[in-house]
Each structure stands twice: as C-alpha cells, then as structure tokens.
Amino acid sequence: MNVVSMTHQTFTPKVPFGGLPIVSATGRGVIATDRDGLGMATVLVRKDRTTVLSQRVRDLFDIDLPKGPRHVSEGDVAFAGTGPEAWLAMRERGGNSFAASLRDSLGNLASVADQSDGYAVLRLTGPKLLDTFAKIIPIDVHPRAFRSGEVASTVAAHIGVTLWRLNDSGEGSPVFEVALFRSLAASFWHALSEAAAEFGFLVADSSGRDR
Amino acid sequence: MSTTAPSNSAERAAQATGRTPGQPYRLSDTGLIDRSRLLSFEFDGKRYTGFRGDTLASALLAAGVRLVGRSFKYHRPRGILTAGSEEPNALVELRSRARREANTRATVAELFEGLNARSQNRWPSLAFDVGAINSIFSPLFVAGFYYKTFMWPASMWEKLYEPVIRRAAGLGRASTEPDPDSYEKAHAYCDVLIVGGGAAGLIAALVAGRSGARVILCDEDFLLGGRLNGDQREIDGRSGSAWARSVESELVCLPDIRILRRTTVFGAYDDGRSGQRTFGAVERVSDHLPVPLPHQPRERLWKIIARRTVLAAGAIERPIVFGGNDRPGVMMASAVRTYVNRFGVAPGGRVALFTTCDDGWKTAFDLAKSRVSVEAVVDARDETSPILLAQAKAIGVRALCGAHVVDVHGVRGLTGITVRDRDGRLSKLPADTLAVSGGWNPSVALSTHLGGRTRWSDVISAFVAGDPPRGMTVVGAAGGSFSLADALREGSAAGSEAAEAAGFTVPAPQQWRTDDEFTGVTPLWYVKESRSKAFVDFQHDVTREDVALAAREGFRSVELLKRYTTLGMATDQGKTSNVNGHAIMAALTERAIPELGTTTSRPPYTPVALGAFAGHHRGKHFKPTRHTASHGWAQAHGAAFVEAGQWLRAQWFAAPGEKDWLETVSREVKAVRSSVGVCDVSTLGKIDIQGPDAGLFLDRVYVNLFSTLPVGKVRYGLMLREDGLVMDDGTTARLEIDHYLMSTTTANAAKVMQHLEHARQVLWPELDVQIVAVTEQWAQYAVAGPHSRRLLERLLGDVVDVSNTAFPYLACAKFSWHEVPTRLFRISFSGELAYELAVPARYGDAAIRAIMAAGEVLGVIPYGTEALGVMRIEKGHVAGNELNGTTTADDLGLGRMMSKKKDFIGRVLAGRPGLTDPNRAVLVGVKPVDLASRLYAGAHFLTAGTQATLENDQGYITSVAFSPMLGHWIGLGLLTRGPQRFGERIRAHSPLRGGDVDVEVVSPVFFDADGTRLKD
Prior knowledge:
The complex is a heterodimer of chains A (211) and B (1016).
Chain A: H1 3-7, E1 30-34, E2 39-45, H2 50-61, E3 71-74, E4 77-83, E5 86-91, H3 95-106, E6 110-114, E7 119-125, H4 129-136, E8 151-156, E9 159-166, E10 175-181, H5 185-196, E11 201-204
Parallel strand pairs in A: 1-11
Antiparallel strand pairs in A: 1-7, 2-5, 2-6, 3-4, 4-5, 7-10, 8-9, 9-10
Helix pairs in contact in A: 4-5
Chain B: H1 8-17, E1 34-43, E2 46-52, H2 56-62, E3 69-70, E4 77-78, E5 91-94, E6 101-105, E7 115-119, H3 133-136, H4 145-149, H5 156-168, E8 183-195, H6 199-210, E9 215-218, H7 227-230, E10 234-235, E11 238-239, H8 240-251, E12 257-260, E13 263-271, E14 277-283, E15 299-311, E16 315-317, E17 330-332, H9 333-341, E18 350-355, H10 359-369, E19 373-379, H11 386-394, E20 399-401, E21 404-409, E22 416-420, E23 426-430, E24 433-437, E25 440-442, H12 445-448, E26 454-457, E27 462-465, E28 472-474, H13 484-501, E29 535-537, E30 542-543, H14 544-552, H15 558-565, H16 578-588, H17 593-596, H18 610-614, H19 631-636, E31 639-644, E32 647-653, H20 661-674, E33 677-680, E34 685-690, H21 694-701, E35 713-720, E36 726-736, E37 739-744, H22 749-763, E38 770-773, E39 778-784, H23 788-796, E40 812-817, E41 820-825, E42 834-840, H24 844-855, E43 861-862, H25 865-874, H26 907-910, H27 913-916, E44 921-928, E45 940-943, E46 953-963, E47 968-976, E48 985-990, E49 995-1002, H28 1012-1015
Parallel strand pairs in B: 1-7, 8-9, 8-15, 9-12, 15-28, 17-24, 18-19, 18-24, 19-20, 33-43
Antiparallel strand pairs in B: 1-2, 3-4, 5-6, 5-7, 10-11, 13-14, 14-15, 16-25, 21-22, 22-23, 26-27, 29-30, 31-32, 33-39, 34-37, 34-38, 35-36, 36-37, 39-42, 40-41, 41-42, 44-47, 44-49, 45-46, 45-48, 46-47, 48-49
Helix pairs in contact in B: 6-8, 6-13, 9-10, 14-15, 14-16, 20-25, 23-24
C-alpha cells in the first residue's frame, strides 16, 4: 500500500467565484475582486470579558474593537462588528491558520471559529456600484447614510450578506466588501452580474488589476 | 433608415407643403414632436406614419383614424377619449407573439419605428363586429345580469355560460409564450419624493434639490411638464413648455436628484424607520423601444423610501354623461388641447365644445389659434364669464349658454350633435369632434392608499385629499388648486418645507409671473333629456341607466353600486367614471355627494406588469441555490440532483446501462454494504458551541447528557421543542473541554440555530456559552462500508491512526492533513462501519477527488441521498418523515434517551397526558405479506377486517424503500401501540395510490439488528 504518495498529493483549493459566467455590456461600471485567501474568523466574547478582550486586541493588532456595526483595520488585520459582542476578524492572506493563531492569542477571552471558507467575499468598486447595489440590496448605501467603515447585515437578492464600506478608491468610486455564505456564491454572482450588466461588469485579479 | 419609412424626398415634399403625407390632421406649425424623425407603424395591418414624440393615439389621430376599439360588453365602436394614463377606451394589443401585450392604452404608448398594434374585442373586423349584436340585446345585459340570468341549472355555469360570456365580453388576449424580456427591482431612498412632473412637481423638485436634499422626481410621461406641454401658458414671459425644459436642464445638474421619467408611483405602503414611508413605482425602461437595449430590463420596479412626499399628480378631467357620449370623436377638452398643442394634431376638422367650466373654453381658443374650425361652445351653465364670452366673440366662436348636448349623430364616428338650448329647443349642429369638459377631479389616490379619506369640496365640486398620510403634502391640481399660479406657489412651498424638514437650508422663495386664467366650474352630472345610452364607465360599459337600476333595486351605497354595476372596476379603476357615477347615485337618491361618499382606491394606481414584481427571480432563480463543495465534481460524474431546501444534493450517480433510478440506487446500496461508498453530507447543519458552560447548555437543549461526554467522543442527541414534541436530532462531538460541534438535519439547520440563540440570549443569559453556525466552513463526506477503514488508511496514511482500538465507534479527532485543518468522526447513518471526514470548504473539491483516488482499488463508489435514505430505512433510523412535528421521543422509540437526572427544554410538556397516552402511534417497521407488493408512504394502517373509516385509523406509513438487501419493499410507520404488535398482520390502505396491501408489523430495524457492522 502506497500510503506516502497518497498523503503528499497537493491539495488545490477552489476559489468561490471561480469560473462563473459574466454577461455584461463593456465598460467599467462595477469591478469585482474575489477575496479568496482572506483569513476570517468569528470572535464571540466570553461572558464579562469585553474589556480584557478589547485590551488584548489593542495590544495584538493596535485596533480598537468596534462597539457597533463598524469596520476597523490596521495593517493587514481588520475587525468588523456584526452583532452584540460579536466580530468578524480578518487577516489579508491569512487563510485557515489565522483562526488558529487568533484562538491561541485570545485564549479564554473569546470563542473563535474559522470562517475563512464559510464566507465568500468580494471587493466591489466602480462608478456604478451604488446604482447596482440599489437593485439587489434593500438598504440605503448613499454616502451620507452609509459611511466608510460602516457595516451592515442585510439581504441581497434573497441572500444573507454582511457588507462594509472601505475608503473610496483613488478614482473617487465607492469601495465595499460583501461577505456571504460560500454555497450561495453562484446565486449571488448571478444577481450581481445581472444588476451590473448594463453598466459594465468586470473582474479584477486579487491585486485589483483587470482580468 | 428603415425600409418602411418614406424616402427623404417625400419628407422634403411634406415639409415644403407644410403637410405630412398620410397625416391629414397633422398641423403644420405646433407641437413638441420631432418632425425630422418620421416613424412608420402599423395598426390593424395598415401602414401609417407619425413622428418621434408622438403617442400611438396622437399618430392615429394625425392619420385620421378615430375608431380604435370595441367596448367590453356591447362592442360599441370606441375612439380616443383622453391623452393620458386614465384612458378607458383606446385599448389596443401592442407587439406580437411572446411580446404581445393586451390592453395597452394608445394614449401612453410612445410611438417607435415599426410599432405594430391591433384593435381588440372585435370579430371579424373593427369596422364590422358581429359582437355588436350585444348592443341590440342590451336590455339583457344590464347591471347584475350574471346574477339574474344564469341562475339555473348551476351545472351549466362552468360548461356553457362562463365560457360564452368570457368570449363575448372581455378585452385583449394575453400571450401564452414565455416573456423574452427581463425585469428588475430597485430600491431608492430620498429626503423628498415628488410625484408628478408638472408645474407644481417641477418647482418642488427644483426648490428641494437646490437645498442639497436627496430628491426623486417621478413622472409617468416621457416628457416632463404635465399640462404645461398640453396648454398654451406663460411663465415669466416664456411658454410653459419652454419653462419646463429650463427647469429640467437645471434639475439634471443637481447632485442628488434622480429623475424617473415614464415612471408611475402606483402605491403608498407602510411606514419605515423614523417616519419614512415606502412607495411602489414602476419605470417603463424599454416600453418605448421595439425591444429592450442589451442588458436593459423592460420595466423596473422601484421601492422608494422617502422621508417626505409631495403629491403633485395633477387632476383628471371629468366627462359629462349624455346620450352617445362614447361615440368616437367625443373627447375630453383638455385632451383636444394636448393633441393640438403638444402633438400638433387636430383631432377633427370641425370641433364643437360642451363644457360646464371655464377651463373648457381654453380648448376653443387654442383650436381657433391653430386655425381649426370651432362650430360652437355649448356651456351648460346659465352664467358664463363675460370675459370668456367677449374673447369668444372676438375670434368668431359661437357660444350657446345654458344649453346641453343631448345626443350625437354618426355610427362609427361623430357627424353631428343635437343641442337643447335653455328654452328647450333642439337643434342639430354638424361636428366631427366634440370636446367635453365636466370639470376636474384631483388625482388623490396615493393619499388614500394607507386608509386616508377624501373630502368633498364645494368650491371645485370634486373630492380632495382629506387626511393624507403623515409626511405627504398635496399640491397644485392634485390639491384642488387648478390655477398655474397656485400650482407654482404651492409646489415651491412644499418643496421648501420638505427639504427643511429633512434638515436642509432653503434659499428665499422665488416668485413666478404667469398669465391669467379662470377656473370656475358648475358641475353637470348628467343630461337628463338624453334618450340614448349615456355612459358613465366607458371601459366597463356602465350606463346612467345601470346606475338608476342599482338605485331602484336598493344597491345604493357606493360600495354596492360598484359591485352591482362593476362601475370603476375596470383596468382604469374608474378614473373618469367614479365621481360621475357616485354623483348620479346621489342625485337619484336625493342625497348630498359627501353623504354618499366615494369608494376606496387601492394600489396599483395604474396596471403594473406582474413580471416587474418578480424581477430577476424567475424560473430557477426564484430562490437562491446552494451548492456544496463537491457539486462540480458530482456534476461531472453524472449525478442527478435533488432540492433539499435551497441546497442541491446529489440524489444518485447513474452508471451507464442502468435502466432506472431504482437499479442505480440498489447498486449504490449494495456497494456501500459490501465495499465502500462516499456521500457528501456537507448540507447537514453544523453549529460551533464554545465556552465554559457549553456542556451545561447542551444538557438543557438535548434530552440526553452531553456534559459527561469525553473529549474526542461523539454522541447522538435528541432535542425537543418547548411543547414536548421532537424538534431535531443529530450527533454532537466534543472537540475540546470547552468546545462542542453540533450537527443538525439539513432541513432544520436554521431553525435549530434560532432555537439555540433564543435559549442562549433569552432563557439563560447567565451561561457563558457562544454559538455560531459553521455549516458553510466545512465540506464533509461520509465514507461508509466494510472497506471504509482501509480507504481512510490509504487516504490519511500516518496522519491519524484509524484502527478500531485507536479510533473506535463514536470517536472524533482533529488534525492537520495536507496542512489543512481536518476533522474526522466515526459515526454512521448507514449502519455500516463509517466515518465522516471534514475539510475547509475550499478544499472540498480536492478532498472528494482524493477520497475517490484512495478508494479506487477498493471499488469505492459515490452514492446519493436516495441510497442514504434506503439504508437509513433498512436500519430504522428516523429522519424528516418521522421528525415531522407530531412525534414524541417515545413515539420514535427514543424515550429511553430522556434523562431523569436533569431538566431540559420540552421535559415538562412531554409529560402531558396526550403525549404519554399508551395508545399513541409508535414507530414500527412493516413489510408486505406478499413480498412482491409495493408499499406507499402515506398509506393508513387499519386493523385487519375493519372498514376504512377515520375511527378505525391506526396510524400511517411514514417512509418506504425497496430494500436491495432484503429484496422487497419495506416501510417505517407510526402505529397505535406499535411495538406490542410485532407479527400482527394489518392493512396499509392507500386509496390514492392503488388500494390495500396486507403488511406484517415488524421491528423497525430490518438490517443488522444487533449493530455489529458499525462497531467492527
């Protein structure tokens, strides 16, 4: 029995939005980047440990744990408030090991669960992003109503999503990230690309370049 | 250029003569149409031309086409009554085949090159319609005739009466082909929503928009301006339409304004947060095009959430009820003005006017200005403003005051009218067009959708908004202020007030100078001297006589009048008829109009295509679909999929040559039981439970103990609802001292999560426990069968020891495999030696490929949910069919699991007498006495020799399967005192699916009863 050769096969991960079709007008109305590889974990504070946890997060990442639905980042780490005493922690290219290291460093201050694969995340930008959101998201995303650093949990075309707004792009376009359950990636993609089709929808690689 | 359009030389010739060939009624010098863009179109198979900026109605009138349809009930010839969305008569079928669109109002259908329309409700032709015989028998077809005529015999209704009536009455035909176009939905938020883009709406938008407020302006027309386009008015020395263009050009430059043209706000809906209100609107994005542009929807449904609303929807002119008032050529006076001024079309060559208000006179003056012959103005009022009379005299228009039009002449079109003067003398006047004005009804529908009432105004003799919803201001004609000066003043004030209420600073108001006008009105509800049919509701063929009949027969309230006569129930919802009908009823029953009241209007204001409400959610996209990580692999390997909630799961994997699913599934079962198989079980719910109190928490939600479960072990758990019935089952693993992982059934994943959150947050907030759904994080595969251990040895090598000693039944472990966090559980649903392997979802595809590669030499096969179901029935494991919300733990044979040492959700109510009744139906197995018989789920159990009656019912079969291991059908069921009846022969009665089968009651465990296989 050739045990060794079996266990040393390379394990190729699949990107959640890989190979999905785009039918769109030409143009750069909405540009999407698959954030595959982003390390993600839910952080749920243990009972009465909020203050200590906040201090620990500040020490570790130089981040003030947001108290409401806000997204705060420093370096390659970000925390997004998703509910009472609940956060989604993220690390660029952190993969599954991010949750493990976070669990080790937060110890008994919080319950940490890996969600790097549970969520599919898209970064979306472009001059027509808000007009596209209007077609699939029922909440107000006007810059006066939904500012940079704010987080919301809502639905997009019957699909539960958590989204947060980042700083506008250099071209002045809004930038959002949208997280949704991975199994729904194809359905979300369909809804998003139909909504963005009239404005021009295209995909950029993880560095933000057009693909 | 299209081949159907006339050549350039023809166009040049037309311009030279000032007349357009084929458009004899096109005026040479007026209108807001683009005369450089000639468009050709077809109506009833005949070619015509019009211009960009025309509606189908204006183009037909320009061509001299006046007969455009037949009426609903009497098949009377009908023409074009209005120039707006209230049109009751000129309904046509637009486009063809899959895009065929019935009941399109010609007055709002924008002309496009190649437009193709047909008249409706006529056979064999519009000019000669056999159905018009209904008119001769019209005494039969009066109000309530369905109720009176087709009483007996009742059996004839469906077979004869209804089909015949439906063919004879009714309007257009819907297409039966799938709609090729797409529709979409959109959400918009604003500080100020302005409904209506006439003078009042435009100025409100400008004032609010300049302050920086977020403004949405909706107008149902394709050209902003409202009456400013149809009338000859002046604002600050400019024509009304030029003023509208200049406001529009400023509006489009404001940063936060959205102008939605061709958009009808059709309904007002509930309150939102902080006083915001929701409106429904439909934008006709592509209705004015032959086909939508690429990636454009046909229509877009807007949900608009507004802090404040300005209702500037204008008013609708009221017809007068007199004999023959439905004859083609009888038109609303304001519509005549619109055709002349906006479209450059004279609706006729010789026009008479019948009015009860000052506004009607404007039509005569505008016609005269355009050199259209005006025969006479018949003003029903005894007193008319001397200024109007002088103006009329100055341009040589004959005025007949205190006179009435009592009848019309002409069959398919007007040729003359009979006028009764104030002394009762009748005279006949020649006219091919009669412009009628009975005053104006404000469009207040949106103010009443949330329960607001209307209020009768004696000043304008019409209903106005009584108590519009909070945050809504009604202005201009919609508010009963019919002068242009008032519209501008009110619109400006409302725009300013709305923006200020939203926190914006508004500059000091501007003033506008307008030309003078008169707005006096004395209503005339009907001409009592008329002998011929006088229509109240044109679209539903309701006459004055029908209203009188309703009054005589006691249907006197407006609601009864409506239902008895169908007044106001057509697609136009009574926009031109309700007030007249109610006023006639008031007069007949000697009541004041406010005493009688009016009917309630409900959304939608105008018809909305159902496709717009569906948006993109059609067909497979009705709801989102969830795919597991192995979906692509399974697809490539011939899986048939089944929907499990939103999930798609592989149901079976057919091999070449297999003749049906049963053969496939039997092969899969046998392979698993003799060798090894793999099944994607990722869809089962997975809930991560952590914290020092996690064990205690689980003790309280499950009937059995979990705090005693050792780390590295898995236990089967059962949870009850508060009412004591079973909620769900599954296995829970203890990964660490303070870390459990619960699994739920696929169907109940979300419900269980909700249940646990409720328990954690509401019932026991004192517990230190945190829960989160991790279903999506893990791709999980069941590897089952006697060779499963060998497969895992080959797959995992020395990463983990899976020997029976190191990893016994109900063990679990987590480890790193391929540098990927991996979990392994020794659990079994099939009854075989089995494991479940979990990897992060992105590696799920790689994992299934690795499992299949490792198992190739062992003959591994993938199996689907169907084989999974067969095996669980063979093992007597309960699933959704048994966990159906009516069963207790005892009913399922799981009562022994209920701990006596602790409290748990559902414990108390599970002890209710009804739930502990010894006669309850309990889980059993059944097999057919004649082993060749098939069993059907849903069959009811009857004791042998008893009648199939409800009293004799003993329970029913919940699940059936053909067992390839036993070679016959088997079933699980719930049978009264079941376990005491093993060996008894009873009947399984299924009248729906083939009668009775004699079955024997047996243990629910059909296969490997002592469970040796799974513990090997």
